[in-house]
Structures are given as C-alpha cells and as structure tokens.
Amino acid sequence: MTKRSIKDFKPVGFKDGPFYNDEDVSKIIEAAGGLPTKKVRLLVPSPKKDTGEYMLVDSRRALWEKLENAARWWDVERQYQPSPTPLQLQKVYAQIQRQTAALLKTLYLDEVKEGQDILAALPESLKHGGFLIPAGREAEQKGGFPLFTNDGLIEDTIISIYRLQRWAKELEIRKVCEQKNYKEPKRAPDAALERLFQLLLGTWYDVFQKSPGTSVDGADGTATGPLIRFVMACLAPLQLDYLTAEAIRDRIRRKTGRRKSKSQQPPLDS
Length: 270
Known about the structure:
- The protein is elongated.
- It has helices spanning about 20-30, 60-80, 85-105, 120, 125-140, 150-180, 190-210, 225-235, 245-255; strands at about 40-45, 55, 215, 225.
- The two termini are about 30 Å apart.
- By secondary structure, it is mainly α.
- It folds into 2 domains: about 20-85 and about 190-255, no CATH class; about 85-180, no CATH class.
- Helix 2 runs antiparallel to helix 7 (about 190-210), helix 3 packs antiparallel against helix 6 and helix 7 packs across helix 8.
- The chain contains 9 helices and 4 strands; from the N terminus they run αββααααααββαα.
- The strands form 2 sheets. A two-stranded antiparallel sheet has the order 1-2. Strands 3-4 form a two-stranded antiparallel sheet.
C-alpha cells in the first residue's frame, strides 16, 4: 500500500495530450506479432446514449483507443492513490491553529482580534526594542518609503499569522464534514499498476484475440512470449519500463483466472 503522507504527497499532474503516438503503436503491434485483420468491437461515445455504443472498428484504431483508455485510468489512479485522508489533513489544520494561537499569545496578541489595531496592542518592548530594527532594514532593501515602512512590514507579518489561523480553521471544518461520508477505498498494493495491467490484458484479449499466456526462454529461463513483449512495449511510453519480464509475468499470473470482464471499463469521457 502506498503510504499516505501530508509531506510526501506530490501529484504529478494529469497528462493532457495522448500517451501513445503512432510510432509507439507500431512498436506495440510488432511486439505482439502483428494485428488481426478482422474488425474489433469498441465502445465509443454516442450522442444517443450516455454510456456510449459499440461499433466495429479497424483493429489498429481499437488498439490505440484502448491503450489510451488504459493509460488515462492509470494516470488518474496514480494521482489519488497516495493522497492524504481527510482525518490526516484535519489534524494538521488543527495543529496549525494551535501553533498560530500560541504564537499570537507569545506576542501578547491573543486577545486582539484580526482587523483591530495590531501595532497599538503589540508591546513597545517588542516593537521599538526589537522588530523595528530588522523590519527597517528589510523595508529599505525592498525600496523603502512610501512602498515599504517599518511599521507596515511588522503589521503585514503579524496579519499573516491571523490569516493562516483563519484559513486553517475553515479547512479543518471542511475536513470534518468530509469525514462523515469518507470511506477508505480498498486498494491493491499498487492500485494504479493493477488497473493498468487489467486493462492491458483486456486489450490483448479483445484486439489480438489471444489467451493471456506466457512462456519461458529455454536458454536462460527468463519470462518471454508475445504477451510479455506486448506489455513491455505498452509500458515503455509510460516510463514504466523498469518492470522486468519476470515482474510482468507475475502480475499476469495474478490477474488471469479471476478476470470476469476483459476490458469493460467505461471510457473516462463517457
């Protein structure tokens, strides 16, 4: 299971353009041993049906569209798989509120509301005996009066503490509400790859009309066969070519025998 972490969650951004180009598709066809000549049944968007409708299309078009569909599902899944839960985020926002409140108390501003005269409430010993010195130096570096003043920088900095506290409070309330209907999804150790392999195997069956079998190289005992080569060619444009032939074979073996539907996943844009 991918670790859910506030700090480590870095969405890579959804890909706008196609995942495969014409050259990629040609290499995938070559790896698979060629395309069948008969047309393939493909679910396509339809203005008449919200769920789309099935049409018989050229096998190359079917392959390309199924590959794009598989890659889009993989791209979506990998974005959300490690995302933090609402409870994790709620705890962080609550902690931000506590720490900003503690900071305001240290500044003797815990009873001063946002929007009130902060500088008047700030102890003189902290203002004139302390903050005005670095604030004045920074104001001068930024261009000085009238754009930047000593008092103005101090006030803006403290206002940022109030603002951060207010934002955290709003977001904590949102996450509390989200928790009421949130259920932790049951995911495989790598749900994105699991989804991708499921759809690639379905594509193999639907387009090439072959069973998902693998073989072993007699010379060195490594996994091989048209299906292995097909999957490896499909993974390369997605920068997943670090998966070895043996790792691919193991995933295929886990998938085969329990798949009821070959590739009947709805298109993302349906």
